[in-house]
Amino acid sequence: MSVHIGAQPGDIVERVLLPGDPMRAKWIAETYLKDPVCYTQVRGMLGYTGTWRGVPVSVQGTGMGMPSASIYTHELINEYGVRSVIRIGSCGAIIDSLKLGDVVAAIGSATDSNMNRVRFDGLIDYAPVADFGLLRTAAEVAEGRGVPMRVGPILAADAFYSDRPDLYGRLADYGVLAVEMESAAIYTTAARYGARALTILTVSDHITREERMTPAEREQGFDNMVQIGLDTAIA
Ligand code: ADE
Question: Are the C-beta atoms of residues 49 and 11 closer than 8 Å to each other?
Fold first, then answer.
C-alpha cells in the first residue's frame, strides 16, 4: 500500500475517476460499476474498482482542496501505475451564461494556489491544462449523449469562502467559467509524471446570482457528468 491508499498492486486500474467526496466515490461505484470492490478506506477516503461496459475502472475520492487532491493523484500515478485521471465534481459558476446543472469541462485551470509558484521558484506562472485527447473524447461523448458541455478555463481556488469575491468578476472578464478547488493540482501532478488528466464539473451554485441546486437537481446533473466521465475513461 502507499502512504494514503490502502490498496495492493493491481487493485487499481489505469483509468480512474476522481470525485472529491469519498461518499460520491461509493455512490458512483455502487450505482454505475459492475462488481465494485472497495480497495481502500484509509482516512475514510474510499476507492473502488469495478467495470463499466465491461472495462475495468477505478473511482477514488480525493478530498477537498489542492494539497489533498495532489496526494491522491501522485500516489495513484506513481505507486499504482495509473495513466488517466478524470476529476468529476461540482463548481460554482462565475460567468452569467452558465446555469445550475450545466456541465463544464476545464481546458485549463488558473489558480491562486502557491503550489506551482514554489515548484518554479516564483519565476514562471505555469499553466495547468487538460490532456487534449481526453478533452476531445469527452466533447465527443457529451455530443453523442446530447448533453451540452461548455469547454473553457476555470479557477482552482484555495478558499471556498473567499475574501475577494471581486476577483471572480475580473476572471469572468477573461472568460473563466467557474470555480472549484482541485483541478490545477491534478493537472500539474499528471503532467509532471506523464499521465493524462481532465476535469468535468457540474454547476452546483452560481457565485454572483447566489443560486444553489436542490438535491434532486444535483442527482440528474451529476448523472450526465458521471456517465460522460466513465465513457471518456474507457474510450
Ligand atoms: N465547488 C462548488 N461550488 C464551489 C464554489 N462556490 N467555490 C469553490 N468550489 C466550489
Answer: yes
- The secondary element (H helix, E strand) that includes residue 211 is strand 211-212
Give pLDDT tens digits for 117-139.
999 999 999 999 999 999 999 99
Residue positions annotated with a catalytic role: 205
DSSP-assigned letter for residue 62: -
Mutate to test the pocket of ligand 1, among 99, 181, 203 (most ligand atoms within 8 A of CB): 181
C-alpha span between 85 and 93 (Å, rounded): 23
Q: What is the pTM of this model?
A: 0.97
Helix ranges (H only) for the chain are 22-32, 66-80, 115-119, 132-145, 166-173, 183-192, 215-234
- The residue among 229, 230, 119, 122 whose CA lies nearest residue 185 is 119
Compute the distance from residue 177 Cα to the ligand 1 centre, in Å.
12
